[in-house]
Amino acid sequence: MLNERKKKILQLIIEDYISTAEPVGSRTIARKYDLGLSPATIRNEMSDLELLGYLEQPHTSAGRVPSAQAYRFYVDSLIEPGTLTDNDRALINGWYSERRRSIEEIFQSTAKILSRMTQNVSMVLANRDVSARFRYLKFLPLDEHKAILCIVTDDGNVDNCVVEIPLGMRFEELDYIAGRISRLLEGRELAGITEDLLSAIHTNVADDKLLFTSLVRSIRRMSRKNQEQSSFSWWYQAAFEPAGISRCRKKVKKSSGYSGRGAGCP
Q: Which SUPFAM superfamilies match (predicted)?
């Protein structure tokens, strides 16, 4: 457990580092903040905090920077809850009153709100429901030879691909096929679409191999994506947050395997 003096020094170090993005030394704390402590005393406390895992020394710098453990402690125990202004409440209510087409858009909006209100980098992570269920598929005509195949799941995700319309097949027939397959698969988990079901799809597309192949590939692609991408994230960079710029670049690069996208990072 940290005593009150260590907590205060740790809080000041974290907040100073967030503001300046520069390692923080004992002289900086003694000069900028009226703690009534000498630099030597603060330095001893910082040494203890480093031994306890709350501070780290970057390279050969004389200063220290907060560790991940320190940020966790800061969020859980040191930071004081604030009060939303009327403008903040109006912003939040306005954003969420708009109709959203998918869960990703809701999380994107959440990240935007957090970034705007905190003037900082924001990140939203959410576990993707690996049990997403098939809702329906639909063909949208491009021309007399091609159509867009859309597969929609119950969580609002959509997979699109362009398919060749079989020679001599009218678009009304494609609509009929889409309806039959939708009824066949509706409510089934993507991960639970078996080879027997795929064979049933084959029967419903009148043995047209090209169309069947496109359907199966799209269904399998969506099932694989749903299982592999267990989380997604949205990132925003406030330009005036110096400590976040380099970290943002690294984090977004690391998150490239996620299904979310980043915005605003230079």
A: GAF domain-like, Winged helix' DNA-binding domain
Following CA atoms 168, 169, 170, 174 in sequence, which dihedral angle do they give, to the nearest 10 degrees? -170
126 to 14, 111, 149: CA distances (angstroms): 27, 12, 28
Domain of 143 in residue numbering reads as 134-228
Tokens of 79: 């930071």
> Do 72 and 114 have their domain in common?
no
Per-range mean pLDDT, top range of 80-84, 86-90, 91-95: 86-90
> Of 250, 266, 228, 255, nearest to 125 (Cα)?
255
Whole-angstrom Cα distance, residue 44 to residue 48?
6
CATH number at residue 48: 1.10.10.10
User: Which region, left, alpha or beta, applies to residue 132 given φ > 0 means left and ψ of -120 to 50 means alpha?
Assistant: beta
Under a CB-based contact definition with an 8 Å cutoff, are residues 32 and 16 in contact? yes
Does 233 lie in the same domain as 117? yes
DSSP codes, 76-125: IIIPPP----HHHHHHHHHHHHS--SSHHHHHHHHHHHHHHHHTS-EEEE
Task: Say if residue 2 is exposed, middle or buried (CB neighbours under 10 Å; 0-12, 13-18, 19+).
Answer: middle
Evaluate if residue 30 carries a pLDDT over 50.
Answer: yes
**3-state DSSP assignment of residue 148:** strand
> How far is CA 163 from each of CA 141, 144, 194, rounded to the nearest angstrom?
10, 11, 22
Residues of the chain with pLDDT > 90, as a percent, come to 23
